[in-house]
Specification:
Blueprint lengths: L1 E6 L3 E8 L2 E9 H8 E4 L2 E4 L1 H4 L7 E6 L11 E2 L2 H13 L4 E6 L4 E7 L2 E8 L7 H11 L3 H4 L14 H13 L4 H22 L4 E5 L6 H11 L2 E3 L7 H12 L2
């Protein structure tokens, strides 16, 4: 059995794989996961798999995630995030040539994939303005759910701030101007596209595979399709691409 751990900034994802088939997926809030199932000793993170209800006897464990300190997991092979996400995307879609867009809780990644292998990549982990955290904050300002936010892409208001904090103030100004919620939500989604577009343009393909928790935003996927002309593929359970990629990477080394 192969176990993949993706220790993200907002959520921890775990994938179990046997005989090339994903058999179980689990997701936890990151802070709760470390509080209830993780202990750091000797500079390494020990995960209490028994308390998680997982029998890891004989299992091969591979980990990736946000921040090198956090992913230094005891008894696990550690691989780079981008490698895990590319392998997961190839496995989940069956595609070999595409541009990968992964939008997580606090960072964004774009990778060029050819013949199933990583060719080049760009990341932005210094600004939260194109991430899931940004969407959560903006949905809170609008007093709507993330699900409702993900529905709107037509008639967007223009949001020009490039900073997540100032973006909230700008959105409040637009609310005061009386714009409908649908246009405000569309503006938030379009502002994410504007921030990731330079990376997508540099590593462009006819097909964009969209992963990470933000990939559940149908509005953002539609904006990318309309603005770039690319086919946008969102695999089932896109937030697990990193964890599944960890399993695939280890399986491939056997």
């Amino acid at each position: 059995m192969f176990i993949g751990l993706d220790l993200g900034s907002r959520n921890v994802k775990i994938a179990l794989m046997e005989k090339g088939r994903t058999t179980r997926l689990l997701e936890f809030d990151t802070v709760s996961f470390y509080r209830e199932y993780g202990r750091k000793t000797g500079g390494r993170l020990t995960v209490d798999f028994a308390t998680l209800g997982l029998d890891v006897t004989g299992a091969v464990i591979t980990a990736t995630g946000y921040g090198r300190q956090a992913v230094n997991v005891r008894d696990a092979r550690i691989i780079p995030e981008i490698k895990a996400h590319v392998s997961g995307a190839v496995h989940l879609t069956g595609l070999a040539g595409f541009t990968l867009l992964d939008l997580g809780g606090q960072d964004s990644k774009v990778a060029l994939v050819r013949q199933g292998r990583l060719v080049d990549f760009l990341t932005n982990d210094k600004c939260a303005a194109s991430t899931g955290r940004y969407l959560e904050n903006m949905a809170a300002v609008l007093n709507i759910s993330l699900e409702e936010l993900s529905l709107h892409y037509l008639d967007p208001v223009e949001l020009t701030s490039t900073c997540a904090i100032f973006g909230e103030s700008e959105l409040i100004d637009k609310i005061v101007e009386g714009h409908p919620v649908s246009s405000l939500a569309a503006g938030v989604n379009y502002s994410i596209f504007k921030r990731i577009h330079p990376m997508l343009a540099k590593l462009s393909s006819d097909t964009v595979v969209f992963t990470g928790g933000v990939a559940r935003s149908g509005a953002l996927a539609e904006i990318i399709r309309r603005e770039t002309g690319a086919r946008v593929v969102v695999p089932e359970q896109p937030e697990y691409a990193g964890a599944i990629g960890c399993c695939v990477e280890t399986r491939g080394n056997e």
